[in-house]
Amino acid sequence: MEGALTARDKVGVQDFVLLDAYTSESAFVDNLRKRFSENLIYTYIGTLLVSVNPYQELGIYTVSQMELYQGVNFFELPPHVYAIADNAYRMMCSELNNHFILISGESGAGKTEASKKILQYFAVTCPMTQSLQIARDRLLLSNPVLEAFGNARTLRNDNSSRFGKYMDIQFDFQGIPVGGHIISYLIEKSRVVYQNQGERNFHIFYQLLAGGEEERLAYLGLERDPQLYKYLSQGHCAKELSINDKNDWKTVSNAFSVIDFTKADLENLFGIIASVLHLGNIGFEEDDRGCATVPDTHEIKWIAKLLGVHPSILLEALTHRKIEAKTEKVICPLTPELSVYARDAMAKAVYGRTFTWLVNKINSSLVNKDFTRKTVIGLLDIYGFEVFDKNGFEQFCINYCNEKLQQLLIERTLKAEQTEYEMEGIEWEPIQYFNNKIICDLVEERHKGIISILDEECIRPGPATDLSFLEKLEEKVGRHAHFQTRKLAGPKGQKRIGWMEFRLLHYAGEVTYCTK
Ligand SMILES: Nc1ncnc2c1ncn2[C@@H]1O[C@H](COP(=O)(O)OP(=O)(O)OP(=O)(O)O)[C@@H](O)[C@H]1O
User: Fold this and answer.
1) Where is each Myosin motor domain found (predicted)?
2) Is 26 a catalytic residue?
3) Are residues 407 and 376 in the same domain?
4) Distance from C-alpha of 516 to C-alpha of 393, rounded to nearest angstrom
5) Alpha-carbon torsion, ordered 342, 343, 348, 354, to 10 deg
6) DSSP readout, 129-158?
7) φ, ψ for residue 381, nearest 5 deg
């Protein structure tokens, strides 16, 4: 095996299992750095692959590279994401059972790219019949569509996934890919109505404006300039040089035609997308009773047309709320402030449901109608750990999800491996590692964790506020080693935490969350 490797591939160790100082973090990072400086971005830890984002084309994803890895024993060739894909595929075929590839890492680490490389590997190397090429193309082309609606520019990544994705690729008994299924998790709806400085809304809005045909835009009542839309311009980077919205629109339009979307589907879909942009531009004023009014109903008319609702019903929904008590219904006017809230809530709900519809629609085009037994390779590509200047509920959920994935890794590798050694009576030096279960418990424990406390605050009678939630946290989890607030931090730590914030010491670093 050694003889087959070129000198370049032998830089450092290509499997961390061979590292002498295996408990030293600096030795680990040194090895990664040494290899990275030679453009070797992959290193194994046994059958786990560590990947460092090169942010440049390295020419390592060619068809000849794919062929090189095809059917070759895992450790015979230098570490590569193709070896992971090939190994899962061969094991699935020989054992006739399901396999899963879990991709995890911080935002921008390269998870989505890795999952696309794996899909491409299967598309090129798996046996294929002509009739099944359609299933393969649909599987591949569902990606640009999902990315257009579910990805956005953040400060960490120009193409950051703002939803989690689990994809099953189904294979028949001959190992031919015959279908697929996608599950999406928690699309970041808040982005539809608000973006931090330097960030954008979901790509599709900008793509539609930049690339959409003149007649389509006219039908939707839209102008080309994204700066004209409040929901697109808050991050002050609607036009971003590194992103070519016009080209991406072409890719997405082409993908739509392959994955079975009819003209009517697309007309409805973009009608809804346009209605969200119009919603964002509705302004409210206060009448002399303090109630919200809409002085300019231009946008209302467009939304009503695009969503197929009556303008007066839409207007009432945005400026009033309905209270239903047993048999009675009372309609109360809203203040302008609450109307803004209602408008944004509607935009988020409309977008969130459209995304769910889109995933379902893609799934129906990927479904394999033949009911013979299939095995699957599952791919989990989920939003990575994130920390921004301002972190809200979304970051809290995303980082909690990453804590859970870290738990899975600990359970499946460190713990399972050492239990096996113990069972088989193998002598080894136990490895100390930080078990982040304590942080998962802090978030999720029933009746005691942060989610339960938030839940209770939301449903209890009486005035619950962001502050009362924070105070409850201080009271109930204030003594936890991984929890801090300004009050609890004492004079030294006070400056770094705001009065409405709490901080969690995650396995991957500290994050300060705003309770607002
Ligand atoms: N293997 C690679 N080779 C070259 N460039 C890469 C590679 N992996 C990632 N990149 C670059 O890094 C960018 C970010 O990667 P990617 O979108 O996969 O990150 P991510 O981990 O999925 O992030 P998020 O959690 O924000 O979705 C890509 O758009 C691409 O430019």
Assistant:
1) 12-516
2) no
3) no
4) 9
5) 120
6) -GGGHHHHHHHHHHHHHHHHHHEE--SS-T
7) -125, 105
396 within some domain: no
State whether the beta carbon of 383 lies less than 6 angstroms from ligand 1.
yes
Do residue 376 and residue 489 come from a single domain? no
Q: Is 243 in the pocket of ligand 1 (CB under 6 A)?
A: no
The verdict on whether 157 is a catalytic residue reads yes
Nearest-angstrom CA–CA distance, 136 and 319: 48
CATH of the domain at 446: 1.20.58.530
Separation of alpha carbons 211 and 485, rounded Å:
47
User: Mind listing the pLDDT tens digit for each residue in 49-72?
Assistant: 999 999 999 999 999 999 999 999
463 band by pLDDT with thresholds 50, 70 and 90: confident
Q: Which residues lie closer than 8 Å to 240 by C-beta, 6 or more apart? A: 153, 158, 200
| 425 noted as active-site residue | no
**DSSP state for residue 385 in the 8-state scheme:** P
User: Residues 115, 151, 157, 354: which is the catalytic one?
Assistant: 157
Residues 69 and 173 grouped into a single domain = yes
Distance CA 1, CA 78 (A): 10
DSSP character at residue 195: -
pLDDT tens digit string along 440-459? 999 999 999 999 999 999 88
- Residues 176 and 128 placed together within one structural domain of the fold: yes
**Is any ligand 1 atom within 6 A of the Cβ of residue 54?**
yes
> What is the Å distance from ligand 1's center to 230 Cα?
29
Distance of CA 283 to the CA centre of its chain: 31
Query: How buried is residue 203: exposed, middle or buried, by Cβ count under 10 Å (0-12/13-18/19+)?
Result: buried
Which residues span the domain enclosing 431?
402-514
Strands 375-381 and 99-103: parallel
**Residue 175 and residue 50 in one domain:** yes
Q: What is the mean pLDDT of the chain?
A: 92
Residue 495 CB neighbour total at 10 angstroms:
9
246 located within any domain: no
Check if 51 is active-site.
no
pTM above the 0.80 mark? yes
Q: Residue 242 Cα, ligand 1 centroid: separation in angstroms?
A: 14
Using most ligand atoms within 8 A of CB, pick from 43, 81, 159 the residue to mutate for ligand 1: 159
Positive or negative: CA dihedral 245, 249, 255, 256:
positive
User: Which ligand 1 atom is the nearest neighbour of the CA of 55?
Assistant: 5
Encoded tokens for 130? 């002509």
**Choice among 43, 87, 112, 512 that is catalytic:** 112
CA 279 to chain centroid: 25
Mean pLDDT across 14-37: 93
User: Is residue 110 marked as binding?
Assistant: yes
